[in-house]
Amino acid sequence: MSTARALAPPSLVAGCAAAGCALIALGDPTTPGGWLPECPVKALTGVCCPGCGALRMVYSVLHGRIGDAVHYNAVLLVFSGLFAWSLVAWAVGRVRGRAVRTWLDWRWTPWVAGFVLFAWLVARNIPAWGLYV
Length: 133
Prior knowledge:
Layout: H1 3-27, H2 40-45, H3 54-62, H4 66-96, H5 109-124
Helix pairs in contact: 1-4, 3-4
């Protein structure tokens, strides 16, 4: 398989991610009343879900404000890095013709990810901790 053909699927995913980042950068989710959607879970229940603050986190990263990104959604910031690693490994594996192992291949990944997301859900909804966004 040619390199261009091997890189087509990962490039499509990276291109969609870049397009999404461009929309977020243009939309400025940190300003209330914009055209970007509000979290439906938070709007319906008042509960801050594990994904709440994701758009603001991405916007902050794109503008070099890492401290703000951590405030908006620290867990998703870490997961974004892990998924970027997986995307690069996928592309390298397709070029080499054999899979490259990532964190997604580890036996305990689903359990740890589930625990972290549940703990984040609980922690962000404790008012005294100041993680509610």
